[in-house]
Write a structure and sequence with these properties.
single chain, about 400 residues, mainly alpha, Growth Hormone, Chain: A, 2 domains
Amino acid sequence: MLTTNKTNIRNLTILLGSSATVLAGAALAPALPEMVLAFQDVANADFLVRLTLTMPALFVALSAPFAGFLLDRWGRKPVLIGSLILYSLAGTSGFVLDSLIAILVGRALLGLAVAGTMSGFTTLIFDFFSGPKLDQFLGYQAAFIGLGGMASLLLAGFLADIGWQYPFLVYLFGLVILTGVIFAIDEPQAQASASREDAPETKSRLPLKPIVLIYVIAFVGMLVFFTFPVQVPFYLTTQAGASNSQVGLALSLQTLSSVVMALQFRRLKTRLSFQGIFSLIFLALGINHVIIALTPNYGLVAVGLLIGGLGLGLFPPNVNAWLASVTPPALRGRAVGGLTSALFLGQFFTPIITQPMVGQVGLSGTFGVVGVVSLLLSVVFVAAVVIGPSIKPAAEGSINAGE
């Protein structure tokens, strides 16, 4: 009985730890407009405040390969403990800091912590599960990540109504997860990754052309999606008169629909190729952007976000499964590391690319431009299905490393 209870707590800790990774960016989104007002005397405050949302993504992308090395060298549990302590300290630092530059430094350190937690908990899943149980647990992981994002946006929205500093307190959640790691997670004995070093399969070579294509799609897809949390808070507060909590609610509705659609991915991939699913993804995201561009009405924007969430829910499992289908099993770790970098670099570059557009064509125009690009990408993928060779969905056991 005690062993069963410990196993259940272990599994819950892994799931909660996986959901905590999404807080790196999402938790601050509802507070961005108030932060701009608080730091309005700082040069380039509009840009720097938006950068606080995506700064962790850059450092996740840069440090994820190193975090994976430490996991294999030092073990899963020590890296997770250190990462969760840093996660809590760096994440909450913005609550007491009154310098925008200092807050950005704290967000960079948070990115280092997230690289360790994300890599660590995902590695634990592969250590503790295999076969159908692995597939099932990865499904649970995806659901927890989506629901964690929705809950964090709602909570952060209400906290932002109290003050822009208060959403930083959400990162105290890391201490709860740390407790579970210390008391319920034992260091796995298997060293499969180390044993592969001497295996003949390591002589396999990565198929660079399809993998680079997948990385490019992942980067562009993240640019298209992340325009929402970066720009929607400003759009809703300035043009729809929405409160911070209403901003959090609208963005959480998108996350809710993404969870529902993600659970349908396995069924959908039996009917469509990866390109076909990407056509649906960019169609949904494009419709979302166009709706926002055409109207500042809060209710219609919320409907648009619900539609966009359908594409968002399909994006991570589709890009992960496609990568798994073209990568030799012995080299998937390296391939997934590259995918993680592509995804988080897409997050980081979103404000860098979209903010100049806002200055030129305004918020509505920016959503319109990104929406048209997304719809064109949908057409390109439809053409790829019609005139090109179709890549069939991956077999059972596809990975879930893009979250």
